[in-house]
Amino acid sequence: MMRKLLSILLIVFMFLASAAKINFIYADEDDEDYTEESYDEDDDDDDDDKSDYEKCTQDRDKAACAAYTANAQNSLKEIEDQIKNAENDRDAAAALANEYAGKAEALQGEIDSLKAQITELENRIAELVVQIEENEKKVAELNDRVKKRMVEAQKTMHFNGYLEFILGSRSFTDMLSRVYGVEAIVSKDKTDRETLLNVIRQLTADKKELDESRVKLDLSYQDVVAKQAELIAMQEFYEAEEIRINDELDAMTEERDSIYDSFEDLRALLKTMGVTVNDGFVAAVHNSWISATVWNYEPNFNSGAWHLGVDYAASRGREIHAPAGGVIIRADDSCGDPGYLGSSCGAWISGGGNQVYLMCEVDGRVYGFIFFHLHDVYVSYGDYVLQDDAIGTVGSSGSSTGPHCHIEMYYLGKGDLADYLAMGWNATFSVGRGRTAYNNRCEAGNSAPCILNPEYYLPAN
User: Fold this and answer.
1) What mean pLDDT value characterizes the chain?
2) How far is residue 429's CA from residue 411's CA, in Å, rounded to a whole number?
3) How many C-alpha atoms does 365 have within 13 Å on its Cβ side?
4) In the chain, what's the furthest Cα-to-Cα distance?
5) Is 430 exposed, middle or buried, given 0-12, 13-18 or 19+ CB atoms closer than 10 A?
6) For 11-24, what is each residue's pLDDT tens digit?
7) What is the pLDDT of residues 321-351, one digit of tens each?
8) Domain 289-456: which CATH class?
9) Phi, psi (deg, nearest 5) at residue 45
10) Which residues pair with 357 in a beta bridge?
11) Measuring CA to CA, how many Å separate 44 from each of 31, 39, 269?
12) Cα dihedral sign for 224, 229, 232, 238?
């Protein structure tokens, strides 16, 4: 129900923000839902029984129209903010997904390197195992040979046989040769066996060292793999977030698009009731004359006496009218009248006295107006005024030497008024003051937002 209410409020506001027959003030939050079919010219109920929508569309009651559309500006800004926030969240999720994907990919190189090292160690360990087994086999064979020789010697020689072998020598020299020969055979077996055992010891030590390195590498590998898994999980989470937010954005965009699709139908309906869009500008101060124009009070532009608007002089109390239908975005009457030259009184722009700020849409373009030095202020923030509606009276509040209305005009860009209302403009419409504003003149080729010469658009009567 709230989604439907928001949609209806935004549809009505977006049309009425382009129309020129309605006032804009705050409304009750619990207005009833209505659609085009709610309009019934034959409704005979008492006015008290009619909804604000019915009073607006049937009776063209400005206050009722304003009451019904009051929350539309905030609602539009809210949905636009939601879309903007969702877009930011989506972009942030996409960025994080890419960041974690990059980190996971970077770890893959480390994982591949560790795997290669582990594979190399495993191959070296396997080679050592083979070498150890081969050398152990040789030791076993040597042991068997020595054992076999000793057994044979015991069978055939024993001690007496060994003596007979030695004593059977033909000469002393022969005897020494036989003794040395037996010792050489025994010593050679012993040396070969010891050499093989040393090789086995070294190979076993090397294998142990490699096994320990293999364990460390395996731990490092498992740690990096676990980190990569965490990164991939985070990547997948933010990818899912991006998809989820995109789905929400699609729904919000579809809702907004449906509002825009309904806009032309409502526009056509209200046109049949005589509610039309602004086709141009009308005079703001009737029967006035221009007492000062733009851009400077002095011939020398370096004097600092910048004048960013046109002064329409008239008698105090002469009504000031809206050049086009639009929305009041600022209004203040806190300054006394008359003021004096040099007074700093002004709620937003110093010396401007009592001020009114108006935004309107004309021929698909959005403009901003500032009215200074008012005596009376008839409007308040959020009011939607008709073209030529009185918004206040000529005065001399603030820094002023006589009754007049100083009017500044700004071009904000092409589009719908509703979109521009939601942007939250500052008191200078983002153009600045003094030389900064002068340098941002539209006539100098600057793009929106830029400042205009009101004399080109607003007649003096």
Assistant:
1) 75
2) 9
3) 15
4) 160
5) middle
6) 444 444 444 333 33
7) 999 888 899 999 999 999 999 999 999 999 9
8) mainly beta
9) -65, 160
10) 330, 370
11) 21, 12, 20
12) negative
CA distances from 111 to 124, 230, 333 (A): 20, 14, 72
The token pair at 98 is 């890419």
Structure tokens at 213: 């390195």
- Write the burial class of residue 249 (CB in 10 Å: 0-12 exposed, 13-18 middle, 19+ buried): middle
**pLDDT at position 394 over 90:** yes
Reference 311, options 367, 394, 392; nearest CA is: 394
Whether the bond between 459 and the residue before it is cis, its omega within 30 degrees of 0, is no
Specify the amino acid at residue 443: E
Tell me how far CA of residue 318 lies from CA of 135, 354, 376, 390, in angstroms. Answer: 119, 15, 10, 10
User: Binning pLDDT at 50, 70 and 90, where does residue 278 land?
Assistant: low
Note whether 128 and 210 are within 8 A (CB): yes
The amino acid that residue 83 corresponds to is I
Burial 90-125 (b: 16+ CB within 10 A, else e): beebbebbeebbebbeebeeebeebeeebeebeeeb
Cβ atoms within 10 Å of 395's Cβ, excluding its own: 29
Map out the domains of the chain as residue ranges.
1-143+221-276, 289-456
Is residue 394 within 8 Å of 403, Cβ to Cβ? yes
Q: Compute the distance between CA of residue 250 and CA of residue 415 in angstroms, rounded to an integer.
A: 22
Identify the residue whose tokens are 């942007």.
423
The pLDDT assigned to 23 comes to 33
Alpha-carbon distance of 380 to 398, in angstroms, equals 19
